[in-house]
Design goal:
CATH superfamily of the largest domain: tm_1862 like domain
Strand order of the largest sheet: 14-15-13-12-11-10-9-6-16
Bound molecules: iron/sulfur cluster
Number of strands: 18
Number of helices: 15
CATH architecture of the largest domain: Alpha-Beta Horseshoe
CATH class of the largest domain: Alpha Beta
Structural class: alpha/beta
Largest sheet: 9 strands, mixed
Shape: globular
């Protein structure tokens, strides 16, 4: 499909919205030079806003007057939405919203127009379904108390362990299977501990106040108990974690042992995540997880025996070979285990994943089944006392749906809320980690990227330390600006 752009800068939004309707279509975004080649979407901003679609026998044009004060990008996107919705005979659950953080936007709308105004804007201007608007409202309400904990000098710490026992076929992270990358782990851990110390020095110098710690990746529990101890001791010796939520992902049940759990507990970890994704062994095999349901159940009961009182479990709707019945069974069994939080993801297929036969996953019928899966999970979770408290979306999600964190009251994870709402700085350590510097007095965010892969991280660690100097620059500029004001 050719997308012609005539005299405007809205190509990013136009392309993303088209992708949401036509996920399997190859799109070429081209400046308009007088010729239209079918199939095409023509978007023009001249004496009026105009969108025409001509594809596979379907033809339609809509126009809109340019009026002072209106959001012209939104107007053009609305015309495109109306045409593609008619052409495909579908409405998108999140309407015109293509961004990853709908709750952040909803929150902003609530503070501007109140709850009713935000609901009306979502439903009428952005064409978000009533159901998803209600979900956004529930998440936004659940987050309010947590967001008020964040102060101008607050920050959270993210540490990346980019190793896993094997690589899942849908994985789009930089994580490497430890079978292939074992030789890198020792040096990686040594340098990571160095980086944690350097980061702590900077945070102290700037009088930043730690709010939450999250060790993810990858699967941190791919490390041995001894290696985990070295890592966690380094965090404890360099940061005051006494009042913080301290999460470690123990995502792959096949990496969980009594020794490792004991180490996490002794080192003050308050929240862990054990992720079944599905409790169907044949699906686990199909997605390359190489662990069994039995291992998941064992890891979970071991964690409970060891005294963990805040456990999250991740599930994925839309996995290759999974069926509605099997997904429902997984949801029911996981709820029966009664973890404090359950995160329900929708499968997203990124280019970097091992599976790339997208037609397998993103056709209309898969989208409908996945939607039914999420509807089932939502009802079951509400019925069992879980509340949705954070939500995000990714591109290339089956059915344009969402990932939702559900938790029992009192177990909403502050880190998840902080990172999704981008309320304060996240200092990142390790390969693939991103430091996000948030100006507490504006919406301005700057990013410092660490090297993506562990081998690059090990080889070029010193360059990374130089990049970290930007943290001080960022905060000194904020101080200067605010003194100036
Ligand atoms: S456990 Fe997570 S990070 Fe590791 S390979 Fe699977 S999806 Fe990727």
């Amino acid at each position: 499909m050719n997308i012609y752009i005539d005299n405007h800068k809205f190509h990013y939004e136009i392309e993303n919205l088209t992708k949401a309707f036509l996920p399997n279509e190859k799109l070429s975004v081209i400046p308009f030079e007088g010729v239209l080649l079918q199939p095409y979407i023509f978007t023009s901003y001249r004496d009026e806003i105009k969108v025409s679609v001509n594809a596979n026998g379907f033809e339609k044009t809509l126009t809109k007057e340019i009026v002072k004060g209106q959001d012209d990008e939104l107007e053009m996107a609305t015309l495109l939405y109306d045409i593609l919705s008619e052409m495909q005979s579908v409405n998108l659950p999140w309407g015109l919203l293509t961004g990853v953080r709908p709750i952040k936007l909803f929150h902003k709308l609530v503070s501007q127009y109140g709850e009713e105004g935000a609901i009306s804007y979502f439903e009428n201007e952005l064409k978000v379904s009533k159901e998803k608007t209600a979900l956004a409202l529930s998440c936004e309400k659940a987050q309010r108390d947590i967001l008020s904990l964040s102060k101008p000098n607050s920050f959270s710490l993210y540490i990346s362990i980019p190793f896993c026992p094997t690589r899942c076929n849908y994985c789009s992270f930089v994580s490497q299977s430890v079978e292939k990358a074992k030789h890198l782990v020792k040096d990686y851990l040594r340098l990571l501990c160095e980086e944690i110390k350097e980061t702590a020095k900077i945070a102290k110098e700037l009088s930043l106040d730690l709010q939450s710690v999250y060790i993810g990746g990858g699967t941190p529990t791919t490390l041995s108990a001894e290696q985990l101890k070295i890592l966690l001791d380094t965090v404890n010796e360099n940061f005051d974690v006494s009042d913080c939520e301290f999460t470690v992902e123990a995502g792959r049940p096949d990496t969980v042992t009594k020794e490792k759990l004991a180490c996490l507990k002794d080192c003050g970890v308050t929240r862990i995540s054990i992720n079944p994704q599905t409790l169907n062994d044949s699906v686990l095999e199909a997605i390359g997880r190489r662990h069994t349901t039995k291992q998941t159940l064992k890891a979970y009961s071991l964690a409970k025996e060891m005294g963990f009182e805040n456990i999250n479990m991740d599930l994925i709707a839309g996995l290759t070979t999974d069926t509605l019945e099997s997904f429902k069974d997984t949801v029911d069994k996981v709820i029966k285990l009664s973890p404090q939080s359950i995160t329900v993801h929708t499968l997203a297929i990124k280019r970097s994943a091992n599976i790339n036969d997208e037609s397998l996953c993103i056709d209309k019928s898969s989208a409908n089944v996945t939607k039914t899966m999420l509807d089932y999970a939502q009802k079951a979770l509400y019925d069992n006392g879980y509340v949705p408290y954070y939500l995000y979306r990714q591109s290339k999600m089956v059915g344009n749906l969402e990932n939702v964190g559900w938790a029992r009251e009192g177990f909403f994870s502050p880190y998840n809320v902080f990172i999704m709402d981008e309320v304060h700085t996240i200092l990142g350590c390790g390969a693939g980690a991103v430091t996000k510097l948030k100006n507490p007095y504006s919406n301005h965010i700057e990013r410092i990227f660490n090297f993506k892969y562990p081998y690059e991280y090990n080889d070029r660690y010193n360059e990374l330390l130089t990049r970290k100097e930007k943290i001080k620059e960022f905060y000194s500029n904020i101080l200067i600006t605010n003194k100036g004001e």
